[in-house]
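I'll show a record.
***
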Amino acid sequence: MIPGFSQRRHFSDLSEQEILALAISSEEDDAQIYRNYAEQLRSSDYPDSAKVFDGMAAEEDEHRRRLIELHEARFGSVIPLIRREHVSGFYARRPVWLVQNLGLERIREEAKMMEQDAHNFYIKAAQRTQDTATRKLLGDLAAAEAGHTETAGELMEEHLAGDVREQEERTAHRQFVLTWVQPGLAGLMDGSVSTLAPIFATAFATQDTWTTFLVGLAASVGAGISMGFTEAASDDGEISGRGSPFKRGIASGAMTAIGGLGHALPYLIPHFWTATIIAMIVVFVELWAIAWIQKKYMATPFLRAAFQVVLGGALVFAAGVLIGSG
């Protein structure tokens, strides 16, 4: 093998025994993935959806059992070690660390894509075999994978009857708000409002756009780092149920920096009054965006949210202008 070239096999080069072995290992992997989803959902207050994935894992176990029986009948009990990653161009599954914290709806979408991949594989595998029993089983499994969407629907009707699914979706929405929206909103408010005074004080004191930009950049990045670490360190999420401190820290820190940079970036424009007018427009947009987010996700009446945010921002802005002009 030439160094640097892939050592994976092409699907077209696999023997019928290797195709069966690949199918067996793929079913084992998919069953384990569904069990991981089920365990994750159980620990995230979605016990009924967890039962759906328990049922899908059991389906994959049955497929694996039938494949093993066929392999033993045709080739004996020793199954070649071949997995997805050994085959060039074969569909892959996400590493476990990338799917551990997916939301409920994202997990359901991931499962649909898994079933579609498996269906396509069995169609191609059936076309490659000449043995009638093998071809029949692979065709049956292709049909079964295609029908898993219906199976999943039946399982959801069984385990998510009545208002259970609606309740789980409300729980998922609440978790999204607690983990991403609240910390992000707090960061956006802090970044947008707290940086107004130093940025506009510097602007009116120096009328130097580059100096103003540097002050705004430093204030925004510094505030973002501070808010991010504070949010992550303040609550590990175990008792409060607010979710991963890493996610909350990222949301809070990033939105804090964005909130400040929004009205610092216009000062890259060398003309002072042009930069200042654009920065004021950006501030207005930022404050109304905060009010809209509060209304959409926090159920705060828009006018009340707008009054609170705009009034607070206006006071801080005025303080910065007065100090800079003094």
